[in-house]
Amino acid sequence: MVQIRVEASRLFVEKGYDGTSMQDIADAVGLTKAGLYHFVDSKEELLFLIVDAGVGRMEREVLEPARAVKDPRERLATLIRLHVENISRVESDVGNPVTSVVENLVGLSDQKRAEVNARLRQVFELTRGALDELKAQGRLTEGVDTTVAAFSITGMVMWTNRWRRPGGRLSSAD
Amino acid sequence: MVQIRVEASRLFVEKGYDGTSMQDIADAVGLTKAGLYHFVDSKEELLFLIVDAGVGRMEREVLEPARAVKDPRERLATLIRLHVENISRVESDVGNPVTSVVENLVGLSDQKRAEVNARLRQVFELTRGALDELKAQGRLTEGVDTTVAAFSITGMVMWTNRWRRPGGRLSSAD
DNA sequence: TGCCCCGTCAAACGACCGTTCGGGAATCGT
DNA sequence: ACGATTCCCGAACGGTCGTTTGACGGGGCA
């Protein structure tokens, strides 16, 4: 069961949700399509399981620790560092979670897609919040729109799932 | 013919390449599927037409003008400004071109996908080149890896296709 | 031993997809 | 006036997809 999720996640990232057939997944875990349906109700449920786990992990290992940091400058740095680490981590138990989430929302129903998007937006909100605090304390360059800046930073981080590899990290991104 | 490209581009962006059927496109332009094939050879050709036009426009209206700027600091600012403008522009004659390109590469053959990716990479290369020059001139904060920084800036810009709207722009992104 | 659930399968189903074919109007050059 | 060309359609084709059905062997339990 867990192996199904792992392989499916890998395939979804590799070939996209639509580009992956139940046959592909069945082959990857050594079952028939029919056998696969003994463990999973539908293809969409499988995608949701994966996406849900990915977003959940992000909330647990990125958002939560970052929220606990008091100083806004430090909080922002922590958020960025943890988020990049989380994205870059290609673990044995599940493929890159954020990639699988962001890139395959198409397959979800409107309702679930909206829900996942709302949860993803927390990253942006936390970023903007920290920037707002910094601005209120006069610790930010004048004339910076915090909303635009927050979008920029979020985008910068999210985009890392397109090149991965190198170990050199920067937290000097303000 | 041009209307086909416009509607197809819009639909590809809205529902994804795989999620859009030839029937959908035919409906959008008031034709039958069969009638559609009078103007287009295949679905993939249609996607390539759109993607090719999008990348071409980016090369013409973003890369070329930016390359002409001598001072690296100014060149970088120009590149970012033009690129953001180009992405944000939702014109009557074609949907957001970069979005349609970046998000739907899945549908292309390996060969064409590689070609388009190579053309997209020019943005990154130009960014890194400008940063390298700045660094050589000692005009850049010490200890910054230009490759990572270039990826970050590119990502920041590319991500803008996820929120569009507001007019407030920043070129203070160094 | 008899029973039932679990994991697995081959086969089929209906839906939809991209694409093709043959033909019927309309339009145009001559 | 007329043949050719352009535009467009109804109908079908072959294929793939997600999903369902019915069944078979085997292991645990009564």
Describe this structure in words.
The longest helix of chain A has 27 residues, at 110-136. Chain A is elongated and about 60 Å long. Helices cover 66% and strands 0% of the residues of chain A. The first copy, chain A, has helices spanning 2-15, 22-29, 33-36, 43-67, 72-88, 97-103, 110-136, 146-158. The model of chain A is unreliable at 166-174 (pLDDT under 50). By secondary structure, chain A is an all-alpha fold. The interface between A and B is medium-sized, with 30 and 30 residues. Chain B binds a DNA duplex (30 and 30 nucleotides) through residues 21-23, 31-39, 42-43.
Features:
homodimer, 174 residues, mainly alpha, 8 helices, disordered C terminus, DNA-binding
Biggest interface pair, residues each?
A-B, 30 and 30 residues
Q: Which spans of chain A have pLDDT < 50 for at least 5 consecutive residues?
A: 166-174
Quick check: average pLDDT of chain A? 84
| Helical content of chain A (DSSP H or I, runs of 4+) | 55-70%
Order of helices and strands of chain A: HHHHHHHH
Q: Could you tell me the radius of gyration of chain A in angstroms?
A: 18 Å
Distance between the termini of chain A: 43 Å
Shape of chain A: elongated
Q: Let me know the largest β-sheet of chain A.
A: none
Give the structural class of chain A.
mainly alpha
- DSSP summary, beta strand count of chain A: 0
* Number of alpha- plus pi-helical segments of chain A: 8
Strand content of chain A: under 5%
- What oligomeric state do these chains adopt? homodimer
